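Table 4 source record.
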Amino acid sequence: MPGVTKEQIARAKEWDLLSYLQAREPQELKRCGAGEFCLKAHESLKISNGKWHWHSRGIGGRSALDYLIKVRGMDFVSAVESLCGGNAAEVVRMPQREPEQKKAFVLPEKNPYAANVISYLQRRGIDADIIGWCMEAGNLYESRKRHNCVFVGRDTGGKAWYAFLRGTGETYKQDVAGSDKRYGFCLPAADPDSPYLAVAESPIDALAVASLVRRQGGDYRRAHYLALGGTAPRALIQFLKDRPKVRYLSLCLDNDAAGRKGMERIKAAVTEDQDLNDRIRAVIENPPSESSGCKDYAQLTQRIKEKQERKREYGIAV
């Protein structure tokens, strides 16, 4: 390839992102969990187990080369040269590290009371009955140690594979170590064979969609509500394969560039899978409307709640 040698390309591909940042840009790294790091500039870009994933953009990879091209916007030759010291005659070898062992997934200990979680979610405009529904299903509880919301992702047999932590008194967000993101947080429909599924980015967005359905007089238990934990379709594909009765998808992702791109990726993933393409009858894009002025449904439910409170206090709609 013009500008770089095959040897340079091979060496550049040896760099994993964590090693690269530790060697070249340690000031950009921030530890955010056991064996997991994020970037100070992009906290939703997580690095663990030799891989990196930028959840808000729905992109990821294994190598530092992928990162320089996809995130930094460098062209291939420049990225290779950067990893090889910027000198065509120089090849910098990646420092060797012992491979990290994947940590076993363990749910946080449950607090016997969930007052912090209930209060926090109600402040966000989430309906009290829907909070109770989630807790009854075993997919939501309060952690004992830090009193975080714990949103649990389970398989059809009820086994927990994934959990997302959301602080109730601070803007703390974190997947539990060892989580398998094929199994997202879900509010199950009353009928396990319901053909309807609403898809959101975060657990609170999923709760917010259900809350809005109930507020508008709809049967909120008619559909499943799934949180992807970002915009990638991985959890959705697993959900659809595990629940063959689903026929209709409502994509309630954020009304921003990442959300719109995520919806396009979901539609492409469904189309490319022959079984799903034959089975799914409708895929509807349903982000928050432009007129709402809200990026996501969690923001929308909170805004509605605040308006209702001001109306009760002052007797006028604001």
